[in-house]
Amino acid sequence: MKHGGMASGAIERVVIVGGGTAGWMAAAALGAYLAGAGTRITLIESSEIGTIGVGEATIPTIRRFYAALGMTDAEVMRACEATAKLGIRFVDWKPGTSFVHPFGRFGQDLRGIDFHQYWQKARQAGRAAPLEEYSLGAMLARESHASVPLPNPPSQLSVFDWALHFDAARFAAHMRAYAERAGVARIDARITDVTLHGETGFIEAVTLDSGERVAGDLFVDCSGFRGLLIGEALGTPYRDWSHWLLCDGAFAVQSERVGEPPSCTTVTARTAGWQWRIPLRSREGNGLVFASDFQGDDEARAELLANIPGAPTMEPRRLRFTPGRREVAWARNCVSLGLASGFLEPLESTSIALIETGIERLKQLFPDKGFDPAVIAEYNAQSAEEMERVRDFILLHYHLSTRDGPFWQACREMTLPDSLAAKLELWRARGAFLRYRWEMFSPASWLAIYGGFEHLPERLDPGVAAVGTDELAQGLEQMRAAIARTVADTPTHSEFLATVDGAAAEPMRTSA
Fold first, then answer.
1. Nearest by Cα to 250 from 268, 227, 273
2. Of the listed 2, 85, 94, 363, which one is catalytic?
3. Sign of the C-alpha dihedral, residues 276, 169, 263, 84?
4. Could you read off the pLDDT of 302-323 as tens digits, one per residue?
5. 94 in active site
């Protein structure tokens, strides 16, 4: 059977173009997945091309990714100068306030009705604490504590998850070591030419600066913003989302660490964008994401440097980007991952997560040499929908912010994508969550942002009327107190890191 003019048969040669986080994650995962299949995997990267290396924040899926490769949390954390991340703390997005988006639940549901409905009833009566005080993950992050969750949580109050802050260059090196043990071959070279089949337009081979020609059946483009294969060679268009996501650049810088490392990423709203702070073991990663139409380079650089607690250890590096995605992530016999497939600002630490899901999707839909169009179409549909859902979640933060200034006003006044507008309307009308296919963020994450901005529904679920206000307030206080006790009994982040360095971390004790 044939598709696209190519004979069917098992893929024999996979060529990954580009190293870094995306390339070596793909190499490690595909090396494990194709072990014993006789498939040759080659990764081509140039050691002349440097990396930013300011520190990377992740979401909990990263731990599932490396666990599937047989790696432990302690192993990865020690290798990558990692700290624990239990959520993201948003500062001044609503001026003068801060809140945490945790990796976990809020409160306990009752009688089939979501917790936030009861919380909103008590809040209207002046009988409720802030929403995050009913989330163990949020309070651990706010107090800079950390622990391993219980394997079998006794209640919803005990449910939380965690991720890592790590040195992305070290993580890529860790993935590389694993991939090379699995038989992945590395070539240190630049690509000077890409050869396409005269009839099908499929990629046949790439030519290196040494003159060597590397042929393949399946090509994985991890070449970054350039999109050497997917964009330059195959001409796949780029769908520009800058009319929604106004930020188009950043300054990134490393700095000395000051004080105890928090167990969360901090993102602080600024004049025309936001600033990140990512704590590693011996330093911090910092950056300012901004919209160049509203703030010049000199002003942005100065705003970043004025708001870093520790002394910078390098000159800030200027980055430029266009938010959006490739029209298709998989074109002909080329699958793009990471920045080659698209870019969304790292407000919710989704960059590596999108690499993970792209790799997992490729494994689930791994082709043969026939490259069946149905397989490619499904991969592209899933990829596009997932990117759009993440885009909407990031947009939500800007739309709900009440900050002053031309940039923030422009964010509030723009016409939203229909998919996000529908979610907001349902939430406003009924406090209900609209879920689409391929959503990276659960209703609990949407609730964290809605609650943090105090953007609450106009009506309560009528079912909450069955619980009296006094009874409800008493129940909420018991939840809040149980979480507070658990946090007090949990190690500080520094203590937790010490246990990671010494041995496997122990699960937390809980009264929640």
1. 273
2. 85
3. positive
4. 999 999 999 999 999 999 999 9
5. no
